[in-house]
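Homework-ish question, so no full write-ups if that breaks the rules, but can someone show me the predicted structure for this set?
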Amino acid sequence: MTTERETTNRLMLRARDVMDRDHAAELDIAALASVACCSEAHFIRTFKTTFGETPHRYLQRRRIERAMFLLRTTDQNVTDICMAVGFSSLGTFGRTFTEIVGEPPGEYRKRGALPDVPNCFVRSWVRPRS
Amino acid sequence: MFNNISRSQLFVLDQDEALDFYTNTLGLEVAADVDLGFMRWLTVRVPGDEIREILLERPGPPVMDDATAAQVRDLVTKGAIGGALFLTTDDAQSTFETLKDRGVDITDEPTPRPYGIDFGIRDPFGNSIRIGKVPD
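A: Not a homework solution, just the prediction itself:
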């Protein structure tokens, strides 16, 4: 028998998966709450209870993790990477990146290429802590 | 010293639901489904693979107490239990389309990687499954 908590966990995970998969798209809370079958306020509150951070912060970290990956695996310029991961403002991207990672994108890129291991692990472990 | 991996294990919340998903939806076959009295030994495998089986185990007593089982179930449904499966296919795009049509939760669409094309799904409980085509 699945408990209500487990069902809720699974719904929150489904919404989190949407953020992981469609991180570059314009995601709004209404759409994510719909995936999780609840109201917007309930979604934000329950997501934080389940995963320890707000959906907004999770999406920020996901986008920054993708930017970190692209900085170290491609030669795309920072502006292109900013747009590719879902930010529309280079200034916001730079501030968010620096706040989360602790150094600006250009400095982070100097760390060099990432090793060739399965991407699903890279994305999980490269992601900055909340 | 070793020559293969014969069995791996995943925690599932409901073995009947797991059986339906891993066979009818994912296309694996039952390797064993035996009531041992103390547990239901349920394993699946890639069709024709006589070596590797995946045990679909329900967490609970007497292996762990109810409180611990609840923690495990909590982690599974949060996608945090680990133990991901990595399956290979001859055609990642076609397999992706098939599973998408069957209503599977997609976590990643097929993407070219240095090690092949792969995509991600979840089972009904939250376990992560990666599916890919390795380069020829």
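Now go work out the reasoning yourself. Hint: The two ends of chain A are 33 Å apart (CA to CA).
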